[in-house]
Design a protein that fits this description.
By secondary structure, the chain is mostly beta strands. Among the domains are: 2-11 and 429-526, Immunoglobulin-like; 211-424, 7 Propeller (Methylamine Dehydrogenase, Chain H), CATH 2.130.10. Helices cover 1% and strands 50% of the residues. The strands form 12 sheets. Strands 7-3-35-34-33 form a 5-stranded mixed sheet, with no helix packed on it. A 5-stranded mixed sheet has the order 40-45-44-38-42, with no helix packed on it. A 4-stranded antiparallel sheet has the order 4-5-6-8, with no helix packed on it. A hairpin with a 4-residue loop joins β5 and β6. The longest helix is centred in the first third of the chain and has 5 residues, at 134-138. The relative contact order is 0.13.
Amino acid sequence: MLRLPTRREGLAALVLCVFAHSADAQFQTDPFHAGLRSTHASSAAHAWLPQSVDFAAGGELVWAAGAGSTPELLVMSSAPSGAIAPEFVDGAFVGVSGPPVVASAKRAERLFSAAQFVAPDAAHKRTVVSAHDPLAAAAGAPFAPRWTHDVGLLVNGPVKIACDSDATRVLVAVSDANTGVARIDWLDGANGALLARVDVAHSPLRALTAARDLSRVAVTLGTWLCVFDANGVVVHQENLGAATYALALSGDASRLVVGAQNTLRVLARAPNSSYTILKTITSAPSELATRVALSDDGGTFAVSWWNSISASSIRFELWDGAALVRTWFAVQSGPAGGLQNYPEAVAVTPDGRRAAFGAWGVLDSQPEVVLVDTTLAAPVASFDLPGSVLALALDDGGTRIAVGMKHVHANQFGATGEFRVYDTGERDLQVVGAPRLGGSLEVAAHHAGSTSTLFVVGPLASGAQTFPNTTGTLWIDRKARPSVFARPSDGHGNAWLSTPLANSAALIGSTFAVQAAARAGGKLHFSASVAVPVVL
C-alpha cells in the first residue's frame, strides 16, 4: 500500500491499479514526443478570446483569462491530453470592461488576477485585483476571490499585474489619459493589504516588468521610463522620446532592456541603483521592437521586431546578454497586401536556457510559436497554429508552452479562441493525468534501453542523494520510507504507473514527489526530472 504525506493528516493511503493508456489522434498522447497536449476552447454560445496566461505550481497548473461576451478565469491542469475541461472557472464578471490579466507563481493556492469594470460609464473603469485559491475550491469552497483590492482610481487605460516568485507580494498598475496620472499598488499576497502606493504624473501605461522578488519594478508611461524600488521610491527615470511596449527587467534587476523604433537599449544597474547604458542595438529604420524578455541574471535576452512598412515581416532574435552579441535570429515574411504578422509575445526561462516566441502569423506554413535553445542556438520545437497567438507563457524548465490562440487570424473577425498546452517531450518523467480526489495519479517515465523502471513516491529530500552503481541522484527522502513500485519498460524504454488517489480532502495541497529509476546496462539510472503533482 502506497502512503503519501499530506498537509493535514500526515499520511493518506493509495491503492495500486493498472494504468490504461488511450490514444487521441488529434493530440500527441505520447508524453515523450513533442506536440499539442491539450486544449480548452470557447464557443459561439460561450464566447471569449484568450487574453492572458501563466503557469503555476511548477508548471503543473495553467492560470488563464478570457475576455468577450462571457469573460472568465480558468484553472487547467497541464498534464492530460486532448480537449479538456478546466478544473475551475470563475465567470462572475458582470460589467467587465476590457480583458482580465493574470499572474501566478510557485504556490498553487495563490493565483492573482486584475479586471476592470464600467464605473460609472463606459469612459471610466475601476480596477479590482483578486486572489483565487484552487486548493480551497478543491476542498469544496466556491471558486471565487479569497480577497479583493480596489485600486481606487477611475481610469480609461489598461491594467498590468505581476507577482513575486513566491506569491508573497503582488503589484498592479493602471493609468488614466484624461488626468495624465498612473497608479501602482504593492499588495500583500496573503490578504491583499496595501503595502505601498505611488502615483505618477505620466500616462498612458504601456508596459510593466519586475524583478522576481519585486525589488525593482519598471514601467513605460507615455514616453517615460520609470523604475521603482520595493517601497515605490523612484530609482531611475528618463524620457525615451517615444512610447514602447518592449520593456524587460532581469530577475535579479541587474539588467534592463527597453526598445523603440529601430533601437533596443541594454542598461545595467549602477551602484547608486539607477541604470546606465551598456549598448544600443539598431535595426532597419522600418523595424520596431515590440517585445523583449530576459533571464534572471540578464545573461540571455530575446527580442522580437515588427516591420512597420511591410506589416507582414517580423524577426525573432536571441542575444547573449554578457557578451552583448546576437546568437540566433529568424525572419518571417508574408505577401505584400496580405494579412499582418505581428510578434505578440516573448518569454525566457529563469536560467536563460530557452526562449519562446509567439506571433500572429499569416496563415501559411510558417510557425506562430517557436521555442529556441540558447546552447544550441537553434529551435528545438515550432508549432504552426490555425489562428493567431494572443498570449503565451513558458514554464521554468522550458519544456512546456501555454498559448492563448484566436480561432482565426487576428485581422479577421472572430469572437472565440482557445488555450493550448504544448510539450517538447523532453522530461524523462511526467505526470500524464490530472491528479484529482477519487481519481488516479498517472505517471510515465522514459529511459532508452531500460528493461524495468522503479517509481519512487514520497516527500522531497533536502538535498541530492547518490548511491553506488547508479547514475544521477535521488531527490526523494529515503528516511521518510517512500513507496517504490516496479514496472516493466516497453520496447521504447517507456514505463507507466497509475494508482487511484484516496477520496480524502487531506490529500488536497499535499506535498509529495515522484521520481523514476530505470534499470539499464546493469545500473539504476535516476530520472533527471522530478514531478511534484498538484492534487485537486
